Amino acid sequence: MNQQSPSAVKVITADPGAIGLFGLAIVTLVASSQKLGLTEGLSYAASWAVFLGALAQLFAAIQDAKHNNTFGMTAFAAYAFFWFAMATNWLMKMGTFGPELASAVDGKQLGFAFAGYLIFTLFMTIGAMETNKVLFFIFCLIDILFLGLALDAFGAPGFFHDLAAYAELGIGLLSLYGCGANVLNVHFGREFLPIGRPFGIFKARP
């Protein structure tokens, strides 16, 4: 009787995209509520940033690495560390780490970080064109978010703060849809909720 060697056995793992999108959805909904003036303060937002925005997406990144999915791993990991940093920045601003750090914050430093993330996200948006249309439009909204955040941090008119807030709300809602579609489409074995085919511009459609 032939036996397969352990290295020849293919291990199948679940697609982590749903939990990654869920983490992104929840943290952006909470953060946008503060930007839009629907809620106040950042104390609760910081915890959602750590556990949903950061840890959930970091978990998805690690699982995507096991799938040899460079695009998904890079995207989820980059945004996971973004939310780790944002939660830490909020805690600094609120004086959690002492008055010295709180008094020395310079919002323009955030502007440079947001600008860097904008450039990164523009590249990822091109890549998202060959995933599905829901993910592509999420990345488009993330582009708008970082554009608004960067300009707001550099002292641009308040319009850009509002632009970032509404883009962030859109990210949250569309990510929830993407999460639900990811789970139900796999669960039912068919396209229960449409996510849109890749554009097929840079890669041939399957």
TrEMBL record:
Its main location: membrane. The keyword Transcription does not apply. It is found in: Membrane. It comes from the Bacteria. Keywords: Membrane, Transmembrane, Transmembrane helix. The chain crosses the membrane at residues 12-32, 44-62, 74-92, 112-129, 134-151, 163-184. Pfam families: Gpr1_Fun34_YaaH (PF01184). The keyword Membrane applies. It is a multi-pass membrane protein. InterPro entries: Gpr1/Fun34/SatP-like, SatP. Belongs to the acetate uptake transporter (AceTr) (TC 2.A.96) family. This is Transcriptional regulator. It comes from Saccharibacillus kuerlensis. The lineage of its organism: Bacteria, Bacillati, Bacillota, Bacilli, Bacillales.
